[in-house]
Write a structure and sequence with these properties.
single chain; FAD/NAD(P)-binding domain; five-stranded mixed beta sheet; globular
């Protein structure tokens, strides 16, 4: 049996695996990216990139290709309630309409430039680990292969082989509905869709008809009967569902891209088990309400990538990986709760009608829509932290005035390293930073404004000092001195090194 060695195996070459592989390469780690499929498919399941995901791409300098390929939508939505981001103090006040197949191809181009090519037709069939390594047994067309690695990350979907072989539980709820969808779809007599195209009420269900491009549509029909999940995914079944819920199939033509899904909601009991980690749908599945699935997975990868790279390089201890579970399991719970709530709000029966009407009435209040918009876009996500200050918050899109001129902090994150940002005249932290030389970048300057504004409008004092993590979240900050800074540097950047140990 052939045996090979790498530092990290990433199983699954979808958007999550691709972004993770790229993050690991930015961090200087060798990656083997594998996928059981024989080649990339035209998977259009996801159709939009939320504002926070656009920031993630921006912070690595890879946003422009996405913007060039997609089209900005002027809203997000929560159970069909339109959520405008126009009043948010963020650089991207919209969700970018871009189908998953295009996202994958763009991300594959990026990782190829970074030295990683997906290895197709490679299925994970065995897994073992000890204190020194993890061994992945994979099936290829040429036979079995043993892959020795420091870590393996399962980005291999809701039916994750990595998760199952690691024995990680996947707790949650069974489906209560059945959905059928297809694109591209051509209709002889397409309806005139006025207003918002998503989650429109019908008979015992709801539907979406979205003009995706000139002459073709994306159609989805939801019925609150989970037994319908036993249907064959065919154009005939889609037409039948449209007639039941909408009253017409509008002369829908045959399409071979029909898919069935439900509202099964499950989350991995742990995102880390020793040398095995999970991200994306391998860690959490839910109904695709509000367009959060792909985005949540990419943000898993953004959180994990720099941490795993630091551990593999030997800059940080493996304890850093426990923060991945703590933070992203927390984020996944938020998404699962809000998607289940959206399913409940859309139920067409009389028992749920008062709930639906009350929610729509509440959503006329701008404060409520800002809370919902911040949640759906992930702009308002704050990781649990006992450090105080801005710790756990998303870094605002701010500029700092330095001796080299005004610099945008988002752009300074493109090297994928933590930033120690000093914004107080006369404070010199170069001696402190020396203990983490080669691992962090020191930025000294002054703020260009007296206060910073959070996405939903709250204003906060500019800190004197802050530690910004490579994923664009604040690890520590202070408006009064540096007590706690060294501890924070140890937590997020690894143990201090003496001068003789510096590389």
């Amino acid at each position: 049996m052939r045996e090979i060695r790498t530092q990290v195996v990433v199983a699954g070459a979808g958007p999550v695996g691709l972004w993770l592989a790229g993050e690991l390469r930015v961090g200087g780690v060798d990656v083997l990216l594998i996928d059981q499929a024989s080649q990339r498919t035209d998977d259009r399941r996801a159709g939009s990139l939320q504002s926070r995901t656009l920031e993630v791409f921006d912070q690595r300098g890879y946003l422009e290709p996405m913007l060039a390929a997609g089209s900005p939508g002027q809203y997000a939505h929560y159970s069909g309630i339109v959520l405008s981001l126009e009043d948010f103090d963020v650089p991207y006040r919209y969700a970018l309409q871009l189908f998953q197949d295009r996202v994958e191809r763009l991300l594959e181009k990026r990782v190829t430039q970074l030295g990683v090519r997906p290895t197709w037709g490679t299925a994970v069939i065995g897994l073992s680990q000890d204190a020194d390594e993890v061994v992945v047994r994979a099936q290829t067309a040429e036979g079995e292969v043993l892959i020795h690695a420091d870590y393996v990350v399962g980005c291999d979907g809701g039916h994750s082989a990595v998760r199952k072989l690691a024995g990680i539980g996947f707790s949650g709820t069974d489906p209560t509905l059945s959905a059928i969808a297809a694109d591209p779809v051509v209709m002889d007599d397409p309806p005139v869709i006025e207003g918002f195209p998503f989650d429109r009420p019908g008979t015992n269900g709801h539907y979406t008809i979205l003009l995706a491009a000139e002459g073709w549509y994306r159609v989805g029909v939801v019925e609150y009967d989970p037994s319908l999940a036993e249907r064959e995914p065919s154009a005939d079944e889609l037409r039948a569902a449209m007639r039941r819920v909408i009253g017409s199939d509008f002369g829908l033509h045959d399409t071979d891209r029909v898919k069935l899904f439900g509202d099964t909601t499950r989350q991995a009991d742990r995102y880390r088990d020793g040398r095995v980690l999970l991200a994306g749908d391998a860690a959490h599945v839910h109904f695709p309400a509000g367009g959060q699935g792909l985005n949540t997975g990419v943000q898993d990868a953004a959180n994990l990538g720099w941490k795993l790279a630091a551990v593999v390089r030997g800059d940080a201890t493996a304890d850093l990986l426990d923060t991945y579970h703590t933070e992203r399991h927390f984020a996944g719970e938020i998404v699962q709760k809000n998607t289940r709530a959206q399913v409940a709000l859309n139920r067409p029966d009389e028992h749920h009608r008062p709930l639906r009407e009350t929610m729509r009435w509440l959503a006329t209040e701008p404060t409520v829509t800002k809370v919902l918009g911040g949640m759906i876009s992930a702009l308002a996500l704050r990781y649990p932290s006992e450090a105080g200050g801005m710790a756990g918050m998303r870094l605002p899109d701010v500029h700092v005035r330095t001796t080299d001129g005004d610099v945008r902090l988002f752009e300074l994150l493109r090297r994928g390293r933590p930033l120690l940002v000093v914004l107080t005249d006369g404070m010199d932290l170069s001696d402190v930073a020396e203990g983490w030389a080669g691992r962090i970048d020191l930025v000294t300057g002054t703020a260009t404004v007296p206060e910073w504004t959070l996405p939903q409008g709250e204003r906060i004092a500019v800190p004197e000092v802050m530690l910004v993590r490579p994923d664009g979240y604040v690890g520590w900050s202070s408006t009064a001195g540096i007590d706690g800074l060294v501890e924070a540097l140890g937590t997020w950047c690894g143990p201090v090194r003496e001068a003789s140990q510096q590389r």
